[in-house]
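Researcher: Batch entry, complex prediction.
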Amino acid sequence: MERSAKVASKLGLHARASARLVQVANAYRSRITIRHVASGRSVDAKSIFGVMMLAATAGTELSVSASGIDELAAAEAIARVIEEPDGV
Amino acid sequence: MAAGRLYRIEPAPSPPEENRVPPARIGHECERFRRALRLVRQQLRRIRQRLDLGAGRERARLIDAQLLMLGDRYFTAGVERVIRTQSASASCAVRLTSDPILRATLAIEDAYLRDRSREIQDVAQRLILALSEKRSRGQREIPADAILLAEDLPISVLAEWATRGIRAFATGSGGWTSHTSILARSLAIPALAGLDLGHRSLQTGAPAVLDGDRGVLQIHPPTRVVLRAAQGRARELKGERDPSSGSSAGCVTRDGRAITLRANLSAPMEARDLRRVGAEGIGLVRSEYLALLSPRRRLDEEAQVDVYGKLVRQVRPFSVTVRLYDPPSIQRLLAIESTACGAPEVQPEGLATAEPACWFQLRVLLRAGAFGSLRVLVPKVTSVKQIREVRAALERVAEELDGERIARASSVKLGSMIETIDAVAAVGRLAREVDFFSLGTNDLIPEVLGQAREHPVAQHRSMFHPGVLRTISRAIHAARRGNIPLETCGEAAGQVPDVLMMVGLGLSSLSMTPRAIPRIRAVLQSTDWATARRVAERALQCRTIRQVEELVREAWPDHPLRAAPCP
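Model: Structure tokens for the complex:
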């Protein structure tokens, strides 16, 4: 299951947003990776270091892919965190 | 005064930085790393809990990120892999694993994201710290009759040991106004500072008697001294030390000058004595008060309102004065808490906590003020701006409470500490902004003289330095011109003959540790204010400490200057 998402937060995927994303990812059993579309780099969504190193700033195009028994829900949930505006 | 056996605490030798370990120790290093992970996780959870209480929710989420880093299996597995494949020590492996991550983060172009490297660095440092402290622990089992000897006894360590009933302690560093000494007095633990620990008679196990009042540590004392110490100690603990000076409230000098005596509170047990010693309210609640009341768990808002509310009700019709936290006091609190919880002392958070902590404290104080009279004291004031900020914050907190329909004090008196030279210079301007002043000699005296507060001889005699006297006098006059009362809560107020000089300079409101009040009252009641004024006037003209001391000796031969620096 693959889904694209654009970083909505003006601050980018900073530490707090990354923390939230990893917490959400860890709630699913699927293997979830996030790919930085422009650079082609991909990281494990369950690793905070990985997500932080994506250095995804506002408007960065990302692609979320999940594989496992709950892959549909997982990819959707992760994409929603990425598309979350500030102040949530 | 206490009798017991010496027990030396040697500073833990910092283990040499090992980078490689023998293959046989690899499993052990992995285990140490996992223990350090658990320890740091506990620390961070505690900090997080504290942040959750106040307005620190944003910071709390950053801590979440750090907790996730500790649980990030790429990181943890990475560290263990380095230990196994390179025979690296655990701390070396942490560095080798975190450095590339740090470098990569620092290379991020976006400044905001790049700034997050601080959290990564912090996690790595906490781990390395936890790994290095691991080995120096375990020497905490001390005998019950111990008189502790240590070069330095941080307040957090004292707070921990005090609950286990040590008899007394002596330190190489730290003066009698150091925070540790003040706390020792509050806890009624005989103590001595500025000792030469290199002396060879100071061996663990040697019987000894420590007399904190006279500043004497006697090794291998004769039996009668030991007996006297034991009896004196029993009396001290029962609080009958000064049976002659009942609980008459109020204090007037022989020639009719009324002096107000208030209490400084550091430790919860001191609150019981307020009525007995006849304190007219509380001139200062130190920041340690709450932490010692509940060292293992940060009290939440309701519990704190309850604690302060009880104090306020207890001292009615007098008032309770609470000093706001300043960043160093927050550091002390965190240190007390982290030691009480068995984790190594760390210096977390820095200034960032100050703000939510302050907001939280103002909320608590405004609510507790509803039960009677509560005053708020701003520490380390150097400019009028600080007072205006606190006043504005008080108004906002009041609005917030009204919005939530929570009872609060209709008004609280706001005071400024005068404990910096800048504040002395600004007393005239500050007088238009505050309701009262409190002279903090503990910090002001060393600042005037350019000493460190924790210096062993700091201020012991220096209260009588002419420059100090002139500074205090200037503050008193400026406050009088501004028509704002000036009181003092420094340790000098609880000491003789220092207090006589303060009264002579014009102070009429003194706050001190409750145990000192009966004695100070007795001394003041047998002293003429006119004499004190005359001595002070002449002292202000002196050029050296010696000349002032000579004046004091002449005027009050019954009240000798203390010989040794001791708490």
